[in-house]
Design goal:
Layout (H helix, E strand, L loop, with lengths): L12 E4 L5 H12 L3 E4 L6 H8 L5 E3 L7 H15 L4 E4 L14 H29 L2 E6 L12 H20 L5 E8 L5 H14 L3 H9 L11 H11 L11 E4 L7
Parallel strand pairs: 1-2, 1-4, 2-3, 4-5, 5-6, 6-7
Bound molecules: nicotinamide-adenine-dinucleotide.
């Protein structure tokens, strides 16, 4: 495959879950800027993301799937492969959150968060690895979280799922270690997206604080930089993980967290 320096991923096909908005859209756009064709997914309106990605001169298509359903998650990968003819870069990004004390944590939120944030990664990876192995190249990138490395109160399901994503990532990396496929996790700190905006409102209720106080005293209190992480920077890290220079990085959890997990 002929890869140009300015568009190092041309000829590659990337599939990004939960990419109609937030971090997933930023990752999809970064991969498109690097030349990859991109398959999108998510519950938001796909039109704006599709238009932004096509502006980079690559092919882009949206594939609907509720990733809480394992068969739908596997079917999504197979639909991308059937349409694009290949899948080289799988980014598991879709995620949901619920904030509540453990004794009041709703059972259905636990089940939904484990299904979307953890089990969907298992299903998409299981479906994508055979094709990647057959074509002799692949990148699996799981968007975990600083909460894959450390915990915070009131986020039992999210923290458990994200720690699980790191365990899954390391296991897959070891199974693929002698192949040209890699599996890594990116662990962002707080990025201002609709998911975090929802948490700000939830935390304000739990702590009995104003939303401004929650941002200052709860959310960015754990992030020593006291700045939100840019979604684009998560995207560019994904592009780096797809580079030749990153071919020896596998099973890693790359923190982009303003120093959060350094203490
Ligand atoms: P977001 O809410 O903006 O986007 C989440 C995306 O996932 C949306 O496109 C949504 O439609 C999609 N989605 C949710 N449930 C789905 C399902 N069942 N099937 C298919 N798609 C589904 O969230 P975000 O902040 O962009 O988060 C993206 C990822 O990054 C998540 O895994 C999240 O845990 C992780 N993350 C976010 C932050 C942050 O501060 N925003 C920090 C660390 C990690």
């Amino acid at each position: 495959m002929q890869l140009s320096q300015s568009r190092p991923l041309s000829g590659r096909v990337a599939a990004v879950t939960g990419s109609t908005g937030g971090i997933g859209r930023a990752v999809a756009e970064a991969l498109a800027r690097a030349g990859a064709d991109v398959a999108l997914n998510g519950f938001g309106d796909p039109a704006p993301a599709l238009a932004a990605i096509k502006a980079h001169g690559v092919r882009a298509r949206y594939f609907d799937a509720d990733l809480a359903d394992g068969a739908a998650a596997r079917g999504w990968v197979h639909a991308v492969e059937a349409d694009f003819g290949r899948l080289d870069i799988l980014v598991n990004n879709a995620g949901i959150q619920h904030v509540a004390p453990i004794e009041a944590f709703p059972d259905d939120r636990w089940d939904a968060i484990l299904a979307v944030n953890l089990s969907s990664n298992f299903h998409t990876i299981k479906a994508a690895v055979p094709g990647m192995r057959a074509r002799g190249w692949g990148r699996i990138i799981n968007i975990a979280s600083a909460h894959g490395l450390v915990a915070s109160p009131f986020k039992a399901a999210y923290v458990a799922a994200k720690h699980g994503v790191l365990g899954l990532t390391k296991t897959v990396a070891l199974e693929l270690a002698e192949t040209p496929l890699t599996a890594n996790a990116i662990c962002p700190g707080f990025v201002k997206t609709p998911l975090v905006e929802g948490q700000i409102a939830d935390q304000a209720r739990v702590h009995g604080m104003s939303e401004e106080q929650v941002v200052r005293e709860v959310i960015l209190a754990s992030q020593p930089s006291r700045r939100f992480i840019e979604a684009d920077h998560v995207g560019e890290t994904a592009v780096f993980l797809c580079s030749e220079a990153a071919s020896g990085i596998t099973g890693a959890a790359l923190a982009i967290d303003g120093g959060w997990t350094a203490r």
